[in-house]
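Changelog-linked ticket: iron/sulfur cluster example.
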Amino acid sequence: MDEDDERRALVEEVRAHLEWEAEWSGFPVPEAELAAVAYPGTVSSSVSLAPAPPPAPTPVEQVAPGDRAGRLRVLATEAAACTRCRLHEGRHKSVFSRGSFDASVAFVGEGPGYNEDQQGEPFVGAAGQLLDKMIVAMGLTRDGVYVCNVVKCRPPENRTPLPDEAGACSPYLTQQIDIVKPQVIVALGRCAAENLGVAEAGRSWRGQWGAYRGIPVMPTYHPAYLLRSPEMKKPVWEDLQLVMQRIGLKKS
Ligand code: SF4
């Protein structure tokens, strides 16, 4: 490729980027700006051929408050590109949520594991299958509840998220809960209970109502723990029955 070809390729790249950016943001790129990216022989000395930085995603505040699905989509897109904490370094896919934005119950777990990281969806492994059974046992449906985690990227070796990682990710969780506004949150595991502020020192962290942003929270054991300790299914079922009672579902 000679020098002219190389320059032509670069110019094409910049034009394509500007056109793509216009399409993405919904704002037209002024003709003058496109014209300034000229072909060899007419290249303006004021135009840099260095690749432009990617455009910032639409801030969630710019999506209509009533468009709850849209707001969650924007947040999920932000999380997919997020580098606020070190967990982004090892992620394959960020894992934002699954289920309905209109759910009466939200389940909040700790963080994605291997399967979730591969598929980009929370609770899809063995623990997820057990969670689904719990949901159905409550008289709810898999797609009718909202499911997410404290952190959206998989911690190495599935370790518990560190406080600074959970803190960096907390604005996503806060907004998810504010948008979905479930009647009840079920915190799955101590990490979720702590990060939702319902694991008070000096008392058992599970089985007792707390609140997160004004929403009742029932902390209970994580399904992954139940796979290792099936004898704990009984107390978890008792916790879930309290949730059912709270939202007016009949106890079996
Ligand atoms: S875990 Fe949360 S804060 Fe950390 S990189 Fe992923 S999305 Fe960003």
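Closing comment: Example verified and attached. Strands lie at 98-99, 105-109, 146-149, 184-188, 210-212, 215-220. Residues 16-48 have pLDDT under 50 and may be disordered.
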